[in-house]
Design goal:
Number of domains: 1
Distance between the termini: 31 Å
Oligomer: single chain
Order of helices and strands: EEEHEEHEHHHHEHEHEEHH
Number of helices: 10
CATH architecture: 3-Layer(aba) Sandwich
Strand content: 25-35%
Structural class: alpha/beta
CATH superfamily: P-loop containing nucleotide triphosphate hydrolases
CATH class: Alpha Beta
Radius of gyration: 17 Å
Shape: globular
Helix content: 25-40%
Number of strands: 10
Largest sheet: 6 strands, mixed
CATH topology: Rossmann fold
Length: 238
Amino acid sequence: MSQEVLLDIQGLRGGYGRVEILRGIDLNVRLGETVALLGSNGAGKSTLSNVLCGIYPAWSGVVHFDGLDISRAHYRKVVLAGLIQVPEGRKVFPNLSVLENLELGSYARARQNRDLNLDKVFQIFPRLKERRTQLAGTMSGGEQQMLAIGRGLMAEPRLLILDEPSLGLSPRLVEEMFVMIDQLHQQGLAILLVEQNVAQSLEIADRAYVMENGTIRFSGTPKQLLGKDELRRAYLGL
């Protein structure tokens, strides 16, 4: 794993309307690293993900990605830089086929490599190849999650943000999802894993941050975090 910082967040604040959600976030992700962003529902994890991707503006603070200042960049510039989000709730296009959903992933970035990347996605998710003509809205929740991740991979991400990928999946599919995420990590892809599932996230992460009420409450390696009694009691019930 490289020591080069790919994503660097310093003092980030943001929210909706006049309601402040993010209260001075410091976080970084290095090349080839999987970093878990953990916390309960309402902690501010998805807000942070959306601010990073330019969907909501940052109030203050600085975000550098791959050497670029994207603190208040338009979401198209963020995508073109290679910061790609797989949103919470999958958000596939239900009336389009699997293939059409995947092709849309390369609309703004990596269009010239569409066929090559499509082959790669089908190697990772053979089920999507089998269902390439099926309407996305008729697929199971697990298949739609595969499709959402595959669509993100079509853009050749430098950093892939996975926002609650295990949400709404059965325990068996959750296990499969985390195995697949770890495989992407082993291939060298940098991942910011935004999750409520603390135990399984810590099994595959290099480092983790725990959010609470819009601030970073804990950070460190999985071993360091599991050694904190307060965190183990609050999030793992141990």
